[in-house]
Amino acid sequence: MRREKVDVLIVGGGAAGLAAAISATESGAKTVLLERDRSTGGVLNQCIHNGFGLHVFKEELTGPEFMERLWEELKEDVIRSNFTVLEIKPDTREVITLSEDGIIVFEPKALVMSTGARERPLNSLRIPGSRVAGIYTAGVAQKMVNIYNRLPGKKVLIVGSGDIGLIMARRLKIEGMDVVGVVEIMPEPGGLIRNVVQCLEDFNIPLWLSHTVIEIHGKERLSEVVIAKVDENRKPIAGTEKVIKVDTLVTSVGLIPQNELIENFVEMDPINRGPVVDDYMRTSVEWIFAAGNNVAIHDLVDFVYDEGKIAGMHAARYALGEKLPEVKYEFVRGKNVGVMLPQKFTGTQPFKMYIRPTKSLEKSVLKFSDKIIRKFNWRIRPSEMIDLVVKNFEGFDSKITVEVSNLD
Amino acid sequence: MTKKLTCISCPIGCELTVYVEGDDIKVEGNRCPRGFEYAKNEVTNPQRMLTISVKVENGVMDLVSTRTDRPIPKKMLEEAISYIKGLKVQAPIKRGDIIVKDLLNTGANLIATRTVLKK
C-alpha cells in the first residue's frame, strides 16, 4: 500500500472532471485526476452527434471533438486511468483507491467529485413480464453502436423520450434498424424539442405521448411488448393496449446522479439527488467540491464544463491555503422549482444559477422572494434548464425563496 | 403563408413563427440571428448536419465518428447515409481530417470528429 499527497484530487474524468483538472492545474495546484475507465472523456466518447460546445467554444461540435479540445486545454499530464475509488474518509481526508498498482491511499487537500450519472434501468419501471435478452439502456445501445460497431437488434421500440432516447432513435435508424417508435408516458417529450424535430420528425419516427409499455414478452430474446395509453395519473387505460412485435427495447427513462462515495456525509438535496453546493461548488464538507451530473442532471455539457472549471479553481485556491468566503445566503424552493443549483451562496461574486421548472408555462417570471428577476416571453419546460447569472445580492434576506410563476 | 417551427440551431429550441409573402420572409420568436437563418432555410431549402460513423481498418477503434462540416440538404440525407455506410478508411486518422471531399456535390466535406490511432 502506497500513500500519496496531492493538492487537488479529482474523481471522474468526464467533462466536469477534465474541466476541473484544467482550472486546478492553471491555478498552480498539484493535481491528480482519477478515471475508472481506460480513457477519459466519459460519455462524450460515444456521443458522436453534434450540439456540444456552442456556449464554451462558440462552435457546434460533436462529443469526441469537445473531449479532444479539453485534452488539448489540459497542459499537464495529471490523468490516471483504470483507477477505482473504493472509499472516501471524511475525518482523515483519505481517499482509498484501487488500480493495477494495487491500493493507493491519496491524501488530498481538496477533492472534486465529478462522478457523473448513471442511467435508470428498465427494472425501475416495474413492468411485469419476462426479463429477456434484447433490453438495453440508450447509453449502452449507444456504446454498442458508436464504439463497438454492433447493432443491438433488428426491430426496436424506444421507451422514454429523453435526449439520449431521441438521439438513439435516429442513430439506430441510420444504422439500418427498423425503429417502430418512441413511447413517452408524459404528455410532453422529455428531451429537447430540437431533438424531437431532427431525430424523429426528419426520419418519420412516430412519438406516442401519454403511452407506456405495460408488458414484455419473449423466450430468451424479446419478441413483443404491449403498449397502452395512460390517463393523467399515468395509469394505463383499459382497451387501448397494442401489441408491438420487436426484438429490442431501448430505454431512456432518466439519469441518476452517482454519489455513493459521499452521500453518507455530505448534505444532499433530495430533488437534485446530488450534494448541496454553494457558488464555489463547495459541498457541506469544506474541502470537498462537486461539479457536473452528480450534482444535478444538466441539459448541456457546456454547463457541466463551466461548473467543473469553477470547482477546480476554487478547490485549488482552498488547497493552496486560501480561506474561501463563508456562505451567507440560501435559496429555498418555492412554487414550480425542481432541480436548482447552487442552493447556497456567499454573495462575494456573480455566479451562474440553474433552475428546472416543474411544469411547462407559456409566459412566466422568475422571482427571488417576490422580486422579479427575469421574464420569459417564451414557453419554459421541465426539459429545459433556465440558466441565469446572479449578480445583485443587495436587499435580500439570508433566505431567498425562488419561484417560477405565470405572468399575469 | 404562416408556419410554426422549432429552431434546431442550438439546444434552446426557440418556437418560431415564419411569415412568407413572396420573397419577403419575417420571423418571430427567435432569440438570436441564427433563428432567422434557420427559419428562412427551413421554408426554402431545409438543411441538416449529418453525424455518422465510418468503418476504420487497422485502427485501435473499429469506427471513426464523422460529421459534415456544414449542413447538407435534408432531402439528400438518405443518399448520403447509404454512400457513407459503404466507405472504409485506413488508420491513423486525426480529428479534422477530410474523409470525403465535397460529399455528393453538396459542397460539404465529411470530416473526422475524433482521432483514431493505428493498431
TrEMBL record, chain A:
Source organism, top-level taxon: Bacteria
MF GO annotations: oxidoreductase activity
One Pfam family of this chain: Pyr_redox_2
Matches recorded under SUPFAM superfamilies: FAD/NAD(P)-binding domain
Key words of the record: Oxidoreductase
Alphabetized InterPro entries for the sequence: FAD/NAD-bd_sf, FAD/NAD-binding_dom, Metab_Enz_Cyan_OpOx_G3PDH
Residue ranges of domain FAD/NAD(P)-binding in the record: 7-295
The keyword Chloroplast appears for this protein: no
PANTHER family for this protein: ANAEROBIC GLYCEROL-3-PHOSPHATE DEHYDROGENASE SUBUNIT B
Name of the featured protein: NADPH-dependent 2,4-dienoyl-CoA reductase/sulfur reductase-like enzyme
Native source species: Thermosipho japonicus
UniProtKB/TrEMBL annotation, chain B:
Gene3D superfamilies: CPE0013-like (3.10.530.10)
Transmembrane segments: none
InterPro entries to which the protein is assigned, alphabetical: CPE0013-like_sf, DUF1667
Top-level division of the source organism's lineage: Bacteria
A Pfam family recorded for this sequence: DUF1667
Cited PANTHER family: DUF1667 DOMAIN-CONTAINING PROTEIN, MOLYBDOPTERIN OXIDOREDUCTASE, 4FE-4S CLUSTER-BINDING SUBUNIT
Protein name: CxxC motif-containing protein
Protein species of origin: Thermosipho japonicus
Phylogenetic placement of the source organism: Bacteria, Thermotogati, Thermotogota, Thermotogae, Thermotogales
